[in-house]
Design a protein that fits this description.
This protein has 463 residues and is of the alpha+beta class. It contains 12 helices and 11 strands. It folds into 3 domains: 1-199, no CATH class; 218-301, Signal transduction histidine kinase, dimerisation/phosphotransfer (DHp) domain (Helix Hairpins), CATH 1.10.287.130; 309-458, Heat Shock Protein 90 (2-Layer Sandwich), CATH 3.30.565.10.
């Protein structure tokens, strides 16, 4: 099994388990084959060029040698022809420097053969025919056919071709093996990272990847993975806390339901007593239903649900409608409510009224007696436009360390701000944040000098 295959198996198999998963092709082998192919093509082109240069040089040398021999023979034959055919034939028998690597054939001017070397044919040769003026000879000239042996040059070219071919193949193979070894060596940090990732589990989400050798390619990848693990750890922690909070919030009404029912069944009860018990159970069941409905709403928002916007409506009008619903609570707490500003925006009116209701209810619970709860509607301050809605009340300030968590689910700042006599399960501001996200907006909170401002933004409608 190669290193790349083992790397993928180690990375894919969970800790403590061995799953036979299919593996992709080896990176080292693919790069080795690619490098071998590139080297084969590159060296092949160079070898062909070098062989062509050798062949061209030999061709030039052969032509030069053949021309030199022609000039030498022309002079020698011309001199020998002065003594007639006998002198020429005698000269040919003594013409050893030329005979050693050439074959000669002479014709008289009338086309009859005058002289021919009795030698076996050459395996490879080059031919040249030319005339030598000879007034003393029949026809006034001698026709010469010169054949030069080029077997030695041909053998050198063949050996050069074989050498270049072997060198090309050897270079390609060596390059492929070298790049495969180098890639496997450079991939060793990935093996370490795969082993580290294999050690990450829900019980060890604090584990982070550490690179053995820092590199330009791996460092950003490891940094992004560690950042992802940071986000995953926070989300997992929040999910565990959320599950615990849900269990706690559901346990209280369920315990009340079970206790009251058991008491009611323990002995005979009057119709009025049973009616009171059923009324109390109904209140607890309504509380359970509200928690479940709010959780379902938040779940849909978390899955990316988008508000269904209607025609532009007056936000001030929506605020006044919500204020009428809270009028009894505001009067009981001795509070006044004012709406400042207005904007006509295409929104989901029912969702915006729900967000306003949650904010007004929250403000009325913690506002000083006799103070004013103010709803301010104004253009957003961000570059994307939109509208900003702020609900302000005067009362005890929220501690700075609680502000970042105010819109978390089931979060309560402290016991002093929690009204035990009222039923509130800690999802109101989380729902406000979800409604803001569904309108491409966000939430914010400011609390200092006994003035608390909690609000949300509504982004512009996109096409």
């Amino acid at each position: 099994m190669n290193r790349s295959t083992s790397l993928q198996q180690v990375a894919a198999v969970p800790a403590g388990r061995c799953l036979p998963l299919p593996c992709g092709p080896s990176i080292a082998r693919r790069l080795a084959r690619a490098m071998a192919l590139f080297m084969l093509v590159g060296l092949g082109v160079l070898s062909v060029a070098k062989y062509s240069a050798i062949a061209m040089r030999m061709d030039v040398d052969q032509q030069t040698t053949l021309e030199d021999k022609r000039q030498y023979l022309s002079h020698a034959i011309g001199v020998a022809c002065e003594n007639g055919e006998a002198g020429l034939l005698q000269r040919m028998t003594l013409f050893d420097p030329v005979r050693s690597s050439t074959r000669l054939k002479l014709w008289r001017g009338d086309g009859s053969v005058l002289f021919s070397d009795d030698m076996p044919p050459f395996a490879h040769s080059r031919n040249l025919e030319f005339d030598v003026p000879a007034p003393q000879m029949t026809g006034g000239k001698v026709r010469v056919a010169l054949e030069m042996d080029t077997s030695h040059d041909h053998r050198i070219q063949r050996e050069a071709a074989i050498t270049l071919l072997v060198t090309t193949l050897f270079g390609a193979v060596v390059s492929g093996l070298a790049i495969q070894w180098l890639v496997r060596r450079e991939l060793r940090p990935l093996l370490s990272l795969a082993r580290q990732m294999n050690g990450i589990s829900p019980q060890r989400l604090d584990q982070r990847l550490v690179v053995e050798r820092s590199s330009e390619e791996l460092d950003p990848w490891v940094a992004q993975f560690n950042a992802l693990m940071d986000r995953l750890q926070r989300a997992y922690t929040q999910l565990e806390a959320f599950n615990a909070d849900v269990a706690h919030e559901l346990r209280t009404p369920l315990t009340a339901l079970i206790g009251q029912t058991e008491v009611a069944l323990s002995r005979e009860r009057s119709a009025d007593t049973l009616r009171d018990t059923l009324t109390s159970n109904l209140e607890e069941m309504q509380r359970l239903s509200a928690i479940v409905n709010d959780m379902l709403f938040l779940s849909r928002a978390d899955r990316g649900a988008v508000a269904r916007r209607s025609e532009p409506v007056s936000l001030a009008e929506l605020a006044h409608q919500v204020a009428e619903f809270h009028e009894g609570v505001l009067d009981e707490a001795g509070l006044r409510l004012s709406v400042v500003g207005d904007a006509h925006v295409a929104v989901d009116a029912s969702l915006v009224k729900r967000a306003l209701s949650n904010l007004m209810g929250n403000a009325s619970r913690f506002a000083d007696h006799g103070s004013t709860v103010q709803v301010t509607i104004e253009p957003g301050t961000g570059a994307g436009g939109g509208v900003q809605v702020v609900v302000e009340n005067q009362g005890p300030a929220i501690e700075p360390q609680h502000l970042p968590h105010l819109f978390d689910r089931f979060f309560r700042a402290d016991a002093s701000r929690f009204c035990a006599s009222e039923i509130h399960h800690g999802l109101g501001l989380a729902i406000v944040a979800a409604i803001a996200r569904m309108h491409a907006g966000d939430t914010f909170v400011r609390s200092q000098n006994r003035v608390t401002q909690i609000g949300f933004t509504l982004g512009p409608q996109t096409a």
